[in-house]
Structure formats: C-alpha cells, structure tokens
Specification:
Radius of gyration: 35 Å
Structural class: alpha+beta
RNA sequence: GCCUCGGUGGUGGAAUUGGUAGACACGCAGGACUUAAAAUCCUGUUCGCCGAAAAAGCGAGUGCGGGUUCGAUUCCCGCCCGAGGCACCA
C-alpha cells in the first residue's frame, strides 16, 4: 500500500473535527498546561512558510504535553483590529469588517491544512463585539483606578477621593502634575470640574493634551515604538510633533514592577534586556541651583537638574536647559533675548526627523548664571535642544571632562573646561570613567569617583539642596488613534469632562461606515458621524483604541471565551493561570509584551485575576528568510546573461519568481511568459543552462521569493511540512527556507511508512515480539526525542527519529508492540500518519489519547562500551572497556593496545587518564 | 557609540558547553534495479600529504592571534566580521 498522504490527511482532519478531538474543558483532574501562540493579524497576503514555524513548535509541544497527561489549552484567534484593513478599505472601498472576514477565512484554511490541534471553539477575534465589549470594560477599570505608590498597587478611584477629603494629596503626590498640592479643605472647595481635572491626573487611563507623533500620511498619531528614526514604522512616512487631546495609559506608574517582574519570568536575556532598556531605570540626584539673573521674574526661582553623576559636581562648567523649559522666559537676559528668540524659532522649525537625522551642535546662552553650591563661581546657563524636556527635570549640569556631549558642546562654544580627573582627561575627548581619583573637587578631593558618589549625595541632602532620585526613561503610552477600525471608547464628553459609560451600556458598538475619510481637526472618521456621536447631554469620544488594546488581554479570554457576564470568570483564570509557554516573534518585545504585562498587573491589583505576570515562559521563534533568485539583464537590452558570465557585461539585477527556478536553473520559457516585458527575451547561457544568482533576504512579495505553505502541503503533505520546518534548525534561530531540503524529510516519512506497509505484501506488522536490539534502538530514540522535545530542540528530535527509523529498517523490525509505541512518540510531529497507522494496526481509539511510552532503561544498560583512546589529547583509536573496569584494568588494557605501543616507542607513559563514560587519554613523557 | 546573540564542510545544521568535531539531512559523484523514467537501495563525500587504487597512516582544521588544561567548538584575554536592539535619557 502506498503512502497516500493527501487522502490520509484530509480524512483525519475531518475526523478530528467531527469528533471534537481538540476540545478542551475547564474541568479536569489532570494538571493544566497553557501553550499560547502570538495570534496573527489577518493580513491580506495570507501566510508564507515562515509564519507557521512558531505555530508548529507550539503544536508539537502541546501534543507532547497532552500525551504526557496534561490538560492542555492551546487556542488560536485573530488580532483583527488595525490599520492595514482600514488602509485597504480606503484604497478599495471594501469595509474593514468585510476584508477582515475574508482574510480570516484564508488564514483559517491555511492553518487547517497544517493539522494544528487548536480548540477552535475558543477562537477570539478582537474586532468582535462580544470581545471588545470587555476591552472597553477593562479600559473603564483602568480609567477608574490610580496607582498607590506606597503600596505599589492600583486602587479604585473612590478610595482616592476619600483620601483627598481626609488628608488632601500630601501622601499621594500627583503623577500627572508634579507640583499639585492641596489640603483636604482645598479639595472640598474645588468645583466639580476642577475635581474631575485633578482626578484625571491620577487615573491609569487618562486624557490629556500632549505632544504626540503625528503622521500626516497615515492621518494618525503613532506610539513612540511605531516611530523609527523620525518616520513611521509602517510606510516610512514623515512624523512631526503635534499637540492633540489624547488618551494615555499611565504605564510609567508600573515601571518598577515591570522591571522587577522580569526576574520572575523565563524570557531570553536579550528580550529581558530590551524591556529593561525601554524602562530605562537610572539612579542619581536632583540638585537645586540658585539662579543669578537680571530679570525680576527669576526672583526666588531655582534651577533643578537631574544627574547620575553627583560625584562630578565640581566639574560643572555650564548648565543646559531644554528649549521648552519653563524657566527660559524667566531667565533670558535682555541682551540675549533676541538671540534666544531666534534660537527657539529655529528649534520649532525643526521636525523630529531632522533633529534625529542630523545631530548638529546648537544652542544659545541665556544670559543667566547659577551659583555653584560649594565654590565661589557662577555657572553660565545655556539653552540647547540636546537636552530633552521630557526626561528628568529638562535641565542638566554639564561636566565636559566626563561627558562626551557636554565636551562637544563646550568645544563648539569655546567654554573653558575644568579637569577634575587628572590624567584620565587628555583634553581631546571626554572620559566617562568612574575609576578616577577626584581633583579640583573641594571636599571630594582624593576620593575615588565611585566612593565620592555617596559622599556628595549625603552632603547635598544634608544641606537641603539636593536629593537622591530614580528616573525612568519610559513614557506613558499613547492610547488613542484618529482612526476607524478599532475599539470605540466607552466615554462621553459632557462640559469638557470625560464621563465613563456604565457597564450596562457596553459594548459601545463601532458603527458601520464605508467612507473612512478623516474627520475635521485631525479627528478620526467617527467624527463624521455627528448623529452617532451625539448622546444625551454630550458627545462621544470619537477616537478609537490602538492595535495593542485587544492584544493586551486576549490570553485571558481564551480561558472563558463565551462568557457574557465577565471578561473571564475568576474560576477559569484561577484554573488556567499563567501562560506556561508563549511562542512568538521578537518584534513585540517592547510593545505588546509590556502592555499585556501592565494590564495583567492592573487586573491583578483590582482583584480580577490571581497572578500578575501573564507569561511564565517566552520562546521567540526565528524568522525564515526567503531564498531569492536573480537574473542579470545586459543594460539597455532584452538580453539576459547567466550568473557565471555576468561579470563580462554591464548588467542590471532583477528578481525572478522562485517558482520558475529549479535549484539555480531558470525555466526560460516560463520566464518569457511571466511578464509581457520578457516575452522576447534572449539568453546568454552556460552550456544551454541559464544559472540564476541567489540571495537570502526577507520573504516578501516584492522579491518574488514567497513560498506558500499550501503548495508545500499539497506536494509533500502536512506531516512532512511540519517535520521539515522543525528539522530546519533551532526554532529560535533565523534561517533560510530551502524547498529542496524537504525531500529528505519526505523520504524519512515514506521509509517509516514502509515499516508498516509493503507495496506488494500490504501490512507488514507482526505480533512477534521485537528483538532486544530493536528495543534498544527504539528506547534510545525515545529518550533522545523526549529530552529534545522538552527542551525545544525540535531539529535534533527529528534527526533522532531518522536514526531510529534507519536502525529499525536495518533490523527488519515490524513488531506491532514496538511500532505502535513509536506512533505515539511520532504523533506530536506527524499526527496524520501516526493516526492512520494507529487505526491500520487495529489500535483502539485515537493516538491523541494514548500515553507517552516510558523508557525501559534495562535495554539501555551497557556492559561495555567503546572508548575513544587519545594520545596527548588526539584521538588515535578506540578500545572496548567493561562498565565495571577499574583504573588499573584500563591501564593494563591500554598498554597492550598496538597503537599505544607504537606511540610509546618503548617508553613508559607519563600518565593514563580514564574518565568513565567519556574517554581515555595517554600522556606521553 | 552602547547592549545582546552569533561565526563549525559546497549547504541547513549536530556535538544537550571541557572528553571521538562534522550526527541527521540536502547537494554532488559513482553504482544497483528498470526498455526507460519515477520510486527505492548501496558506496563515497572537511582539506592536504603519501600512494595506480584501496586499506592504513601522517599533518592541518570549528572567524583571527594568544592563554589555561592531560584534553578547548566549549573557559579566559585581545582583535575581526555578521544579525538584532537601543541611541542625544545627562
């Protein structure tokens, strides 16, 4: 019987579906295990062979865990809100809801062909009303909460109001408005409007006017992580700063816990590093400097700077404040006012992009000075764009001998440089060392910089002119988009106050629209529906939520996807708990992962779930690159020259569709028919063959190197495809796709099939027990496969399968007992063939419900083994040694070995090293 | 510039990090079966030397240069190259 994979795979996919083979219950006596894939955005392009890599790995692992006796949750869904669908609607007039449904249908059929064990009854789509109702609900929880910094825990807003009434905000400084301070009396005297305004500065989801990244081309605001070098990540359009009313998540209040939480999860070092860099915690001091300015309005004001190097206090040569700094207008001297005004104009004229692209040294002297706290000297205060208004205090103390930027600034403006680090500073560049012994540094003289840090801080604090301060680089996350295809906010504006809608009016349904032009004043399309926006006594918020809203909590919805009373019942989230294994790409390192970690912490604080880190373990699958094929056109002609001869001509390089190339050989006829331009192409060949060039690059339509999994599955079957993707290399590593290599895995599967079936004789499986040698080969394989699967080394597991099948074929093993056990071990990787042969050999039920065979160690014990015998560390021969041999036994044997005798040349060895189960080394004198 | 991870045959990769470097595959070469093809099977395949060939042997070899060790792809020091991330964060 032939291995008819197409029929087999279709048959079992249907059977599994009909039998609900992958349905998972929230009630089970088995231990739970939650395996999650990062759900896809259903783009119009469909899947290419790179996408399923992580899905296959998680599928193999889920199936393995199931066989090991776990109740495994392994769901899938779609992150179906987002910009591309909206862009597509604008270009093609097809509503996002429609194109999204079509795309999902395509994705689903592609996924189905690969034979994943998803419980589709738990599917979620972020754009479904039943789903985004709860996204809106969670938003309301965040809106109605504040961070109690003392307890490091989010609390309900009404508790804050009680505190204000009792004690003002003395013990809970305002995160949104640093200098806001009020007593209980004052609070009680506030108008309702003022109270709302104050509370907004505390809310975890809040609205404010902010400078945002505005992208004219996309008509929307982008998050910091969506802007790369001043242009949009999507499309590369210019981005400028614009003041807009925006929603934000106060993620900065979670900075410390997001950082600390990294200690408790199993993410890769680089992933943890990316996140902690993003959070950007630094220790230092805020120091107040007395101002010396002519202007009366500077009277009594101080300049507060942030520094991480208080030890360099005596090296200050100038101060720099950001152009946006509030003090600018108060300290600019009359003589300098014209220059300062011109400089501010210049700064405003520069877009974010220009500022990032060309880092020119610019600045202007304000005319004002600061007093040095410990020395009789005045320090000039400069204004420059290299100091950022949004970080620290927006002002710095410049120490040019130790800081490169300060050094360049000093050199550029001819400001004299004080050296406090002796020979560490050579006058040509700053030296940021912490190892120097301080000089010219008053009371810090003679101290090592690392020690001076604390001494300086103590002194500053004692004098009341400075204090220790921790800063974070992370900013609050912009949470609104001027777009249509996202969750509407459950907010109504009444008299300029944001009023949350009651839970009973959720979901706020996104109204159907076909014309998705932006609304007036940089508002989204929803602003074009005044009748929708108008509600009793107010207007709806017309922004929508960003793409990461729905993806921040989807892993919770899978636990209880049909619940209409709650986003997820507490029983369900208590049962499933954290995601045990999360598989996805590294591109979400700082976006999605940080947001979902924050949402999880907030839901935990508010008592809705029982854990505060969503993902226990994260594995990042690598990207599969495309293997492009190139042809070379002789410039200005229709002549194409083969790769080996191209250097003899002046050529242009063009990508050709990889499907027209076999290895490197171009199908010239297909090429001529490919595009009208090439119909009359001629070829300069190498012996009649046109050889293409090749290049590894991103798999993309534009390079014609996209390989569709459907085609591979059609040609080789899903089992071959799954195993080949695993065989390609370590999951976490980037690697190129090579369609030719799949033959090897396909041959292996066919060879496996032949252990069961012979083309002529039919079923070969026999009841005779397997020979010990077969059991030995088998259990050796099982042990390796299980080890490898457990540690995500799927590629080596596949090669162990190959070795196993090669061994059993050689041993002519057709024993039913052994082979049916083999099916169980193989089934996570190749479920279809395993199920088919399970049934063919008359096994009851499904191989999915079998249990993983236990390795019988007795077959693996060895009474003796072959040791490599090295002479001076270089392997020369091998030697059989009994397991119970002593050092003396081994030495005696070694000295008899002819190879050793030859090398010894009659002399005695210096030493004989015998490491049990490893090797033997003879050291010559 | 800083941080993280890498660099092994013609190719993908293995050696579960101090113990036989190149498992398992792809490709290639040769052969068997076949009228032929497909499929399948067998042999060889890191480089160099010695040899008609085979066997055996010798030397070199995991980006480069040093070091530690009986023994290094693995550990240490100094470079080079590649991928990804961050980038005026004081």
């Amino acid at each position: 019987m032939e291995y008819a994979f197409r029929n087999i795979e279709r048959k079992w996919q249907e059977n599994w579906k009909l039998g609900n083979a992958y349905r998972v219950s929230n009630q089970s006596a088995k231990p739970k295990y939650y395996v999650l894939d990062m759900f896809p955005y259903p783009s119009g392009a469909g899947l290419h062979v790179g996408h399923p890599l992580g899905y296959i790995a998680s599928d193999v692992f889920s199936r393995y865990k199931r066989l090991k006796g776990f109740n495994v949750l392994h769901p899938m869904g779609y992150d179906s809100f987002g910009l591309p669908a909206e862009q597509y609607a604008i270009e093609h007039g097809i509503p996002p809801a429609v194109s999204t449904d079509q795309n999902i249908a395509t994705f689903r059929s592609q996924l189905d062909k690969i034979g994943f064990c998803y419980d589709w009854e738990r599917e979620v789509r972020t754009s479904d009303e039943g789903y985004y109702k709860w996204t809106q609900w969670i938003f309301l929880q965040l809106f109605d909460s504040w961070m109690d910094r003392t307890a490091q825990k989010a609390r309900k807003l009404n508790e804050l109001v009680e505190i204000f009434e009792r004690e003002g905000n003395l013990n809970h400084p305002c995160p949104g408005e640093k200098n806001l301070a009020f007593a209980p009396m004052e609070w009680n005297g506030f108008s309702a409007h003022r109270k709302a305004e104050v509370l907004m500065h505390y809310r975890l989801a809040f609205c404010g006017i902010g400078e945002v990244n505005w992208c004219e081309a996309l008509g929307t605001v982008l998050a910091n992580d969506e802007v790369i070098n001043g242009v949009s990540e999507r499309g590369g359009h210019p981005v400028v700063k614009k003041k807009l009313r925006q929603w934000y998540l106060r993620i900065t209040e979670y900075a410390e816990r997001l950082l600390a939480g990294l200690q408790t999860v199993d993410f890769s070092d680089s992933m943890k590093e990316m996140q902690s860099n993003w959070i950007g915690k630094s220790f230092g001091a805020e120091i107040d400097f007395e101002l010396v300015a002519e202007n009366p309005s500077a009277e009594g004001k101080k300049l507060k700077v942030y520094t991480t190097r208080p030890d360099t206090l005596f090296g200050i040569d100038f101060m720099v404040i950001a152009p946006e700094h509030a003090l600018v207008e108060h300290i600019t001297s009359p003589q300098q006012s014209a220059g300062v005004a011109a400089y501010l104009d210049y700064v405003n004229s520069r877009s974010e992009r220009e500022r990032m692209a060309e880092k020119k040294i610019t600045g202007v002297f304000s005319g004002a000075y600061c007093k040095h706290p410990f020395e009789e000297r005045n320090i000039p205060v400069w204004i420059s764009e290299y100091v950022l208004a949004g970080y620290g205090t927006g002002a710095i103390m410049a120490v040019p001998c130790g800081d490169e930027r300060d050094f360049k600034f000093a050199k550029h403006f001819n400001i004299p440089i004080t050296n406090i680090i002796g020979s560490y500073y050579d006058g040509t560049a700053a030296n940021p060392t912490k190892e120097a012994t301080l000089e010219n540094s008053g009371f810090l003289n003679g101290l090592l910089m690392t020690d001076a840090m604390a001494v300086a801080l103590d002194q500053l604090e004692a004098l009341g002119i400075g204090k220790r301060q921790t800063n974070y680089r992370m900013r609050d996350a912009a949470f609104s988009r001027q777009r249509y295809w996202g969750e509407p906010f459950p907010i109504v504006w009444k008299d300029d106050v944001a009023v949350p809608l009651p839970e009973s009016s959720l979901p706020v349904v996104l109204p159907p629209m076909t014309d998705l032009r932006p609304g007036p004043d940089a508002q989204g399309p929803l602003a074009n529906l005044p009748e929708w926006a108008a509600v009793d006594g107010g207007t709806r918020e017309v922004n929508t939520m960003p793409g990461y809203a729905g993806s921040s909590w989807y892993f919770l919805r899978y636990m209880d996807p049909k619940n209409t009373d709650s986003f997820c019942s507490r029983e369900a989230s208590d049962y499933w708990g954290q995601v045990d294994l999360y598989i996805g790409g590294t591109e979400h390192a700082v976006g999605h992962l940080l947001y979902s970690r924050m949402w999880t912490k907030a839901l935990y604080d508010l008592g809705h779930i029982g854990f505060d880190e969503p993902f226990k373990r994260l594995v990042n699958q690598g990207k599969i690159g495309g293997d492009s094929r190139l042809v070379y056109r002789v410039r200005g002609t229709k002549q194409f020259v083969s790769a080996g001869l191209k250097d003899q001509y002046d050529t242009d390089e063009l990508h050709v569709d990889v499907t027209m190339v076999d290895g490197l050989d171009l199908d010239m006829e297909a090429f001529k028919q490919w595009k009208p331009d090439f119909a009359d192409a001629t070829f300069i060949t190498e012996d009649g063959v046109y050889k293409c060039g090749s290049r590894l690059e991103k798999m993309s339509k534009r390079y014609f190197n996209v390989v569709n999994p459907d085609d591979i599955v059609e040609r080789y079957g899903a089992d071959t495809f799954r195993m080949y993707e695993m065989f390609l290399g370590p999951v976490e590593q980037d690697k190129p796709w090579d369609t030719k290599g799949i033959e090897g895995v396909h041959r292996f599967i066919k060879k496996f099939w032949r252990l069961f079936f012979d083309t002529e004789k039919g079923l070969m499986v026999v009841d005779t027990p397997a020979a010990d040698a077969a059991w030995k080969a088998f259990y050796k394989m099982v042990k390796k496969v299980e080890d490898d699967t457990a540690r995500f080394s799927f590629n080596t597991a596949v090669s162990s399968f190959m070795i196993g099948v090669n061994d059993l074929t050689e041993l002519h093993c057709h024993s039913k007992d052994l082979l049916t056990k083999f099916l169980v071990v193989l089934s996570p990787y190749a479920p279809h063939i395993a199920e088919e042969l399970w049934a063919a050999t008359g096994q009851p039920g499904s191989v999915l419900d079998a249990s993983y065979p236990l390795v019988e160690e007795k077959y693996l014990v060895e009474t003796s083994r072959e040791y490599p015998l090295a002479i001076n560390g270089k392997t020369r021969t091998t030697l059989m040694i009994d397991a119970d041999a002593s050092q003396a036994d081994v030495e005696a044997l070694v000295l008899l070995d002819p190879v050793v005798v030859k090398w010894l040349e009659g002399k005695a060895p210096k030493k004989i090293i015998y490491v049990k189960n490893k090797m033997i080394n003879v050291v010559l004198g």
